[in-house]
Amino acid sequence: MFEFLFKYPLSIYRQGTFIFLAGWPLWLMGLGVLAAAGVLGFLIWRQSSGSARMGVVRRTSVWVLQTALAALLLFLLWHPALSVSTLKPQQNIVAVVVDDSTSMTTNDENSTRKEAAEKVLNGGLLKALQEKFQVRLYKMSDHAERIDKLDQLTANATATHIGDTLKQVAADASSLPIGAMILLSDGADNTGGVDLETLSEIRRQRIPVHTIGLGRETMSHDIEISNVDVASRALPESRLGATVSFHQHGYTGQKAKITLKEGSKIVASQDVTLKAEGTEQVETVLFNAGDAGVKTLEAAIEPFLNEENVRNNRVTRLVNVDSRKPRLLYLEGEPRWEFKFLKRAVEDDKTLDVASILRTAPNKLYRQGVCRPGDTAHPQVNGKCTEMEDGFPSKVEDLFAFDGIIFGSVDAPYLTKNQQDMVKQFVDRRGGGVLFLGGKDSLADGGWAKSVDADILPTVLPDRKNTYSFVGADVELTPAGQDSLITRIEEDPAKNIERWKKLPYIRTFQDPGEPKLGAVVLANFIPKEGGGVKRPLLVTMNYGRGRTAIFATGGSWRWQMLQPLADMSHEMFYRQLLRWVVGDTPRHITGSTPKSLLADESHVKLRAEVRDKTYLPASDAVVEAHITGEGGQQETVNMTPEPLEQGVYGADWTTPQAGSYIVEVVAKRGTEEIGRDTFTFRREDGIAENFHVEQNRDLLQKLSAETGGSYYKPADAQKLGKDINYSQAGITVRETRDLWDMPAIFLLFLGIRAAEWLLRRRWGVI
Amino acid sequence: MRLRAAVFFILGGLLTWGILYAQKPFIDYPSTEEHAEAALPPDWERDAEWTRGRLKYTSSTFEHPYPNNTGRYGWRTDYPLGDRHTLQGLMRLTRVDAKSVEQVVELDNSSDIYNWPFVYGVEVGHWSLNDEEADQMRDYLLRGGFFMTDDFHGTQEWDVFMEGMRKVFPRRPVVDIDNKDEIFHVIYDIDQRSRIPGAQFIYSGIPWEFDGFEPKFRAIYDDKGRIMVGICHNVDMGDAIEWSDDPRYPENYASLAYRVSANYVMYDLTH
Predict the structure, then answer these.
(1) Which residues does chain A have within 8 Å of residue B270's beta carbon, measured at their own beta carbons?
(2) Do the beta carbons of residue B137 and residue B129 sit within 8 Å?
(3) B102 or A188: whose pLDDT is higher?
(4) More confident residue, A192 or B87
């Protein structure tokens, strides 16, 4: 329609420059319009002065229309035209890039995308191009490759990197007169799109990229897993959540089953009801991490019988289940049942090791869980354990040997200023977790608000005492708590909410104050007396490299005593809470990679964060990564300091083949070993093309628009043979295109005259 | 009329549930012994982290040697002065935030006893547990409750006590507590199993009762090696503490009773 009204395609208008060919000055046109307006006004006023039917409004309307007509005639007299740059015939090269990835084998309405591309090119486009230009054919995968004929297309490439391919073709243009590129693709790029650098490179060379979009924009019957988010590290036997994001077409309201498998063993499954068409749906499936070791987890949605693409129903992730046993220090200021039952709740947890110091009498401490077997740092002297015999550690190394701390009913002044500062650094620098429990000497009543550790608390404590109450209180999960793994004591989320509502009331509660910005309230308590105003019970927050939590009660022991013996809710809650406290506490060296799964990629970045004995960044370490492949092949890579991050070392490595890799990162200072850490990653080939198989029209349109090209559907692609002439790249000539004879001007002329005639007819003054 | 009946039914149900589910209020029972009478302390209403439960049980038909004192009120022996002295001592010697009055609890099939994870039972050589009570005692102990017994002596009372305990734990052994067990060291190192005679020692000078010549500190352990039932046989810590402010009662026995009591409480709170 545009081309019919305005004679040329929109792309020419975008590319060309508007000019007047008459050569007369523009001010003269303006003067002519003014003069015409004056003369017409005078004539209309004089002719209509005696007519009662031609009032001021009507006369003005006629004057406006006639002046517009005069202006239009003057505009045409000045000879409007477009100056466009066109490719010189036979002197330019047009690059035709055809997607050759496996997604091109997708069957869309009786033909594959590869067949559709061939049909477009063989249907006259290629011939039309060859008549005017030299045509270079490329097939696209993760790079561009020259081909001579279309039958060299195989559609079996395992990846599509549009940006890299175009960059490579554009690089050819630096020595060749490439006038335009034509990209035939479904836009299913595996790298997430075309980066700005590539776009600006193509724009700099002024090469228009015309795109021909292949394939359906939405599948009619398909479920696709778009992401699976699961912790890459976990403690043995810990409960983990795999957050599965997916969308579907054609199955709204139907039931589907998500399964998590480790090898052939199903570790968890969950039935879900599919939401609206195209909506991103997120479901969390809980599973047990199991024993220590590397777990390859496959998240899958069971395919429907008529599903068009079942290869995008499964995604693999790696979880490294650590063999370490994080250690917590529990300092309790008074003997009380919360102390007893907390320790009982976690004693069977093989992943947690709790050492405790209890103030039994004014000058007596009772230590438990100290001097473990094999503890060389605290040898027994005459059969007596010396670890923490003087109470809470006063040396950084001793405190930082723990992964987490629990403060029971203990007042802040019991710790020295130095110890209080160490606790803050324990969270901030060490990256440990601290849990504050409610109690008569806890939180505000224990003077913590005035200590340096007030900073690490997830709430602003009340500025008063007597915040601890022996009135019972019911407990209720917040929306955040309903999603949290800490508070998941039932697998099913709905049942979990109800389960919390039915828990026995807590014996005591403490007002923890107001949550700080960034803190998350997972549960509230509702006092059984005094109006029942909800207050935060369980609040968590990240601080520095670590994390802190408040559990504002000393009376959750009722969950154990007031429920049937077989009920495990008290145990599960405390185990999950304490695992959260210590689960992410780093050691002296932490190795990682940005992606634990390389999907059709071979390049991997290795990273190691190294801290010394007091957890200060160690920038003078020698760090090596020992990589072991599936077949047992080994390689050692030296890691070098990252210039902008203290204590961080990095390395780039290329995987020789698909499979799992174990990396052990070792950091040394001289001959002294600072620490070592192990992590894993996996390379899988031939999977990236299984996803995002719908045509990514947005990407193709954006690519065309940004480079001065146009997007075409296959049915319109033959127009390209004409449109492609207009380009600023390659060898071009400037041409002018007349605009005076375009139909839109003729229609405008007729319209103005018709409007005046219709108005006059209505007024009866013809 | 039907609506009113329904409302009454619902309210009655809620009240019953509340009574069963919530903890019962404090009741100051009259003492059955003149010496054991005690006024309520001024702070008796103060809430605290820890409360000592005193087990109210049904006495057996076994003839009691002092029927005028206790009889069918055997559970009230030394009550309440013995309890309140114990609590004062505990607060003075330890950092336990104890309530100044005891809480009388029963194995009455309600949930009340579960609110008091430490229960003290006296004169259990005269108790009588039916099957339901034994079932609840077992459940209470396995959930994490602790039962300390005291002031029963000799073979005959032991047999009566064990008749009840066998209903609670038919197969769990009753063992003598080893000297190394933490219950004798958690606060105070109590290396000798000394006698702690009852108040009759003041008049008779005999430190034992019946054929209970040797003090016995026995226990029933749970599957994790923790004491659930601390059985103090042939000793009378209740009397020792109750009479601790009487100059006629030997101080060394009273002090030992306080220390043993504190250790038992502290053991429970740490294991």
Answers:
(1) 335, 339-340, 343, 358, 360, 366, 368
(2) yes
(3) B102
(4) B87
Please state, for a pLDDT cut of 90, what percent of chain B lies above it: 84
Question: CB-based contact (8 Å) between B224 and chain A?
Answer: yes
Give CA–CA dist B164/B180, Å, rounded: 28
* Mutation target among B97, B114, B263, B265 for the A interface, most CBs of A within 10 A: B97
CA A541 remoteness from chain centre: 22
How far apart are alpha carbons B215 and B212 in whole angstroms? Answer: 7
Of A210, A211, A198, A171, nearest in space to A87 by CA: A210
Burial class (CB in 10 A: 0-12, 13-18, 19+), A64: middle
User: Is-contact B53 B120, C-beta < 8 A?
Assistant: yes
| Whole-complex ipTM | 0.93
Q: In terms of pTM, does the model score above 0.80?
A: no
Nearest to A495 by CA among A341, A286, A662, A281: A286
Measure the CA–CA gap between A183 and A96, rounded to whole angstroms.
6
CA distance A384 to chain B (A): 14
| Interface size between A and B, measured as CB pairs under 8 A | 84
Q: Phi and psi dihedrals of A137, rounded to 5?
A: -95, 135
* Cα of B29 to nearest chain A Cα, Å: 24
Q: Which of A335, A508, A562 sits opposite B269 (nearest CB)?
A: A335
State the average pLDDT for chain A.
91
Output the pLDDT for position A556: 98
Task: Return the ∠ at Cα A375 (arms to A371 and A377), rounded to 5°.
Answer: 100
Tracing tokens 């089953």 back to the chain, one arrives at A257
CA distance A338 to chain B (A): 9
Q: What is the C-alpha to C-alpha distance for residues A688 and A435, in angstroms, rounded to an integer? A: 43
Inter-chain touch B186–A366, beta carbons under 8 Å: yes
Asked if B49's CB is within 8 angstroms of A337's CB, the reply is yes
Q: What is the pLDDT of residues B123-159, one digit of tens each?
A: 999 999 999 999 999 999 999 999 999 999 999 999 9
Residue ranges in A85-139 assigned as alpha helix (H): 113-120, 126-132
- pLDDT recorded at residue A722: 77
List of chain A residues whose C-beta atoms are within 8 Å of the C-beta of residue B269: 335-337, 339-340
Element (H, E) at B47: none
A296: exposed, middle or buried (C-beta count within 10 Å: 0-12, 13-18, 19+)? middle
Helix axes A743-763, A56-77, angle to 10 degrees: 160
A33, A63 Cβ separation under 8 angstroms: no
- Please report the pLDDT score of residue B161 as a whole number: 97
The better pLDDT of the pair B28, A377 is held by B28
Residue with tokens 């206790």: B70
Cis peptide before B207 (omega within 30 of 0): no
Interatomic CA distance for residues B236 and B260, integer angstroms: 11
CB contact B270 to A (< 8 Å): yes
Residue of A385, A557, A561, A567 to mutate when probing chain B, most B C-beta within 10 A:
A561
Q: pLDDT tens digits, residue range A106-134? A: 888 778 999 999 999 998 899 988 888 88
CA–CA gap between residue B220 and residue B165 (Å, rounded): 10
Chain A 159-188, residues with CB within 8 Å of chain B CB atoms? none
A414 inside 8 A of chain B by CB: no
CA of A364: which chain B residue's CA is closest?
B187
Among B50, B143, B168, which would you mutate to test the A interface (most chain A Cβ atoms within 10 Å of its Cβ)? B143
Which stretch of A206-210, A461-465, A571-575 has the lowest confidence by average pLDDT? A206-210
